[in-house]
Amino acid sequence: MTYDFDVPITRQGTGCIKFDRRPELDPFWVADMDFTSAPEIIEALHARINHGVFGYAQAHAGVNEAIDLYLENQRGVTVPGEQIVHLGGLVPALSLAGRAFCQAGEALMTCTPVYPPFIGVHHDGVAKLITVDHVLVNERYEFDWDAMEAAVTPETKVFLLCNPQNPLGRVFTREEVEQLARFCVKHDLVLVSDEIHCDLVLDAEKTPHFSALELSEDLRQRTITLLSPSKTWNIAGLGYAFAVIPDDSIRRRFSAQRGHTLSEINALSYYAAEAAYRHGEPWRQQLLAYLRGNRAALDAFVAERMPKLKVIPGEATYLAWIDARGMGVENPAQYFEKNAGLFLSDGAFFGWPGWIRFNFGTTREHMLAGLEKMAAVL
């Protein structure tokens, strides 16, 4: 089957955050896409809806089997069922980890720029936050290992990793992930690896994703790997994710922090996840081809038409991280909002003021129209 990603979908008025939070602006901000989900997912949801009863739900045999097949076929690992913790989303999982492993005065550590909840979830508990900037080396963002060694303290208990990295689009290599895991062993840290974008690697043959699940057994024992079909198949609003936690003690401490604060996972989300993992691969491959085209068009447009901006092509995700400091304005996102009517993500929320994040997970026509608006006010 051929899927058409050029078809515009009207999202205004549906209660979606992306279009309805600031309806007067043209949105290229929050990380969801303007494409309908794979028809196989929609069919599975219709089938579940036709049953007509939506009581409290738990993971059924079909979704558990689909997850097993996905982990084996896409990640190359076999995971015992007891190591999987089903979740209503990945952001709550970051908060759970902070509360589970940090006492008062202890710290979470992460590298910036990074998805905003990474630098905000410590407020949910009593933890402090330590951040270290990624550094640009030969036009590629890397870890600053010396700065990380200087910043880590005996009170640091958790390292939050985003891989593939949002907003940088980096896909960290096996060597980088293994070095980070050894860093965590050396400093007695739990490594929480958010891999929500791992199925959106745009050039997997050149930059294959290396999951924390693939670490050697001794390194894997202190990891929590977070996964979800939500970003890839555009079903984030259904609220489903899962964690893989090999160590029994870490898994118990993590799960205990759920307490009574998280709602039940909804009955539909399990079936959407099952359909995505069982039947969504052809749709995903065509999506990746379309996103590669969008990325190339965006990179060329910025280079040719907006010399005050700089973008290093990402290896994954549908998010472009753009250096806008050359504009000479205090807040580039606000500038484009006021002068071009665009809603972009402000780099300050990721820890790097002066930058913007542009979501190109939309039709090429819409993306180019947004870029034209940016160029016009530059």
UniProtKB/TrEMBL annotation:
One of its GO terms (molecular function) is lyase activity. The keyword Lyase applies. SUPFAM superfamilies: PLP-dependent transferases. NCBIfam families: C_S_lyase_PatB. It comes from the Bacteria. Belongs to the class-II pyridoxal-phosphate-dependent aminotransferase family. MalY/PatB cystathionine beta-lyase subfamily. Gene3D superfamilies: Aspartate Aminotransferase, domain 1, Type I PLP-dependent aspartate aminotransferase-like (Major domain). Its EC number is 4.4.1.13. Pfam families: Aminotran_1_2. Residues 37-371 form the Aminotransferase class I/classII large domain. Its cofactor is pyridoxal 5'-phosphate. CDD domains: AAT_like (cd00609). This is cysteine-S-conjugate beta-lyase. It comes from Luteolibacter flavescens. It is an enzyme of class 4 (lyase).
